[in-house]
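tool=predict chain=A
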Amino acid sequence: MKTVISALIAITLLGSASAAAAQTAPNPTQFLDVAMQLARAVDANQALQIWESASPVMKRATPRDRFVATVNQRLSLNGRIQGRDWSSISRVKIPAGASGLPAGEYLTVALAGVNKNGVAIRESISFVLDGDKMWRLAGYAVQ
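tool=predict ok
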């Protein structure tokens, strides 16, 4: 299972375009597919495997035990998210010194659904373009 999660999170920029061109125009559908699979992995209580395959950015920002505890708390409170669908996909380039995040290119997929009690839930799954030109998980949050 760890290999499957790793493959999901590390999105290689493939195709005939150069890596530079791919960086400026990532495929939103590819990120949406991966985000949905990661959200289902969260529902399946695979937080540890997800964290282990995440980007160094996420690992520095969120220690493993805190990430796993936060995801487990979300599962306990909300259960599996039902009717999950995407609501937005956004991309931003953060220059050095501009925010609390390291400089780089980020892409966030927002998913909307309802919890076990019928309450609206929004999940944000963010990716960062790492130095090896692979997109990796940079964050997972639930509101």
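Residues 12-24 have pLDDT under 50 and may be disordered. The chain is about 40% helix and 30% strand.
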